[in-house]
Automatic annotation (TrEMBL):
Domain Integrase catalytic: 168-331
UniProt lineage: Bacteria, Bacillati, Bacillota, Tissierellia, Tissierellales
Signal peptide interval: none
Entry protein name: IS6 family transposase
The keyword Ribonucleoprotein appears for this protein: no
UniProt superkingdom: Bacteria
Record keywords, A-Z: DNA recombination, DNA-binding, Transposition
Length: 343
């Protein structure tokens, strides 16, 4: 039986003046309207896929996908008068920061030595410039505790997940809303190869909000860094050097409302000297280690250094307080023992 299809031009509503006009690429019969010369295939099923695109934040109208990249998409307003351009990050595509990839112990169970001895050894390593052999010597002379320097080295690496969990528990008690966050990267060596450590610091509290260790120095690593700290607080501006890798990640992940200040150290009114000062302290501790042996041990050691810098080390620029205390952390003596902030 022949299929009867009612033919009607979708453009001018003509229903009697047509030409057969071949077939389209899917094999459906096409017609040409003799009134308006519009071509159409009435038998072709209508399949319109609705795109879940965001609305324009300026005028509220629909947007279209202008460019699609690995970590973000660029949308433009359909209104030619508005023509607003917006950048939407792909959170699922951005890789997690290295500070969330720690391996080791999360408690002090089944340890041969008392907890206060372990905490003392960790404090001497991360707050000073002592080597593992010097710490073992001090513990033997002062505390009459014989412990191998290799054991102390293992302590300084294996407890990184434990202190990271303590940091995550304490973060909600602090306020990181600030005028400026400072971001920069520096070089470390792992087994003789160059790696880059990316830091971001709050200007008001000197608190290290996050870090990321990577063998690459490109925009993808900056995406990872800012995506890991975007929910910690609201910030008005990000201060960085003139490296172009920061430009798109800040604009995409943190939004257009956050101002990006690109400076040259020691020359502009607003400088990046705060994080350069932190790098000076970090390098002073790092140089005593003469590099790292592996990526995992380097990641763990840096994570522990950041914890002691944020929660244990008092800063003269902060009137003898720690960055965590300036950020609003107030703990009782019982809570300090719980979070291992006293030996």
């Amino acid at each position: 039986m022949q299929k009867i299809v009612s033919i009607k031009c979708p453009k001018c509503n003509n229903n009697h003046l047509f030409y057969r006009y071949g077939k389209d690429k899917y094999g459906y019969q096409k017609y040409l309207c003799r009134n308006c010369n519009h071509q159409f295939a009435p038998e072709k099923p209508v399949s319109r896929q609705l795109q879940n695109y965001p609305r324009c934040p300026v005028c509220g109208k629909a947007t279209f996908l202008h460019h699609d990249y690995d970590f973000y998409s660029n949308f433009r307003c359909c209104d030619k008068i508005c023509n607003h351009s917006m950048f939407v990050p792909k959170s699922t595509a951005i890789l997690p920061a290295s500070m969330s990839k720690l391996a080791g112990k999360t408690d002090f169970k089944r340890m041969r030595y008392p907890i206060h001895i372990i905490i003392t050894a960790l404090s001497m390593f991360y707050l000073g410039k002592n080597s593992f052999r010097n710490i073992a010597l001090i513990l033997r002379i002062v505390n009459n505790v014989k412990v191998s320097h290799t054991t102390i080295s293992n302590w300084c690496k294996k407890f990184a997940p434990l202190f990271n969990n303590l940091s995550l528990d304490l973060m909600p008690m602090m306020n990181f809303d600030s005028d400026e966050w400072h971001a920069d990267e520096t070089v470390v060596k792992i087994s003789g190869k160059k790696y880059y450590i990316w830091f971001i610091i709050d200007s008001e509290t000197r608190f290290v909000l996050g870090f990321h260790l990577s063998p690459f120095r490109d925009s993808n690593q900056a995406f990872t860094l800012f995506n890991s700290v975007k929910d910690l607080g609201s910030v008005q501006s990000i201060v960085s050097d003139r490296y172009n890798a920061y430009k798109m990640p800040i604009k995409t992940v943190l939004g257009d409302k956050v101002q990006h200040i690109r400076v040259e150290s020691f020359k502009d009114d607003i400088s990046n000297n705060l994080i350069e000062s932190f790098h000076h302290q970090f390098k002073a501790w790092y140089k005593t280690k003469q590099g790292f042996n592996s990526y995992d041990s380097a990641n763990n050691l840096i994570s522990m250094f950041v914890f002691f810098y944020n929660f244990v080390r008092p800063h003269s620029a902060l009137n003898g307080l720690t960055p965590a205390q300036v950020a609003g952390l107030k703990l009782t003596k019982k809570e300090k023992k719980k979070y291992l902030l006293v030996a």
